[in-house]
Amino acid sequence: MSTSNWNNSTVEADPVIRGVYILLLSGISLSGIFLNIILLVIIRQSELKIRRRSVLITNTTIADLIIVLTFPVDIWYSFEIGNRGYLCVIFLSIKLVPIFVALTSLTLLSVERLYILSKLLTPTPATTYFYQTTGAVVSWIVCTLLLVINGLLAQQLCSFNLVVVYVLIVLFVVEFLLILVSYITSVVIMNGLNTKQRNSEVPFKARAKIAPSVASKSVKSITGTGRISDGHRYVDNANSSLESFTKMSILSTTPGSTRLNPTSADPSFTDPASDNCQGTSSLSQTSGQPGLINRKLDAVTQNIIRRTGLFVVAFFACYGPTFVLAGVVVQIKMPYPALNYSFWFVPLILYVHVTIYPFIALYVDEYWRRRVTAKINKWCCKIFTT
Question: Which residues pair with residue 235 across a beta bridge?
Answer without folding.
Answer: 246
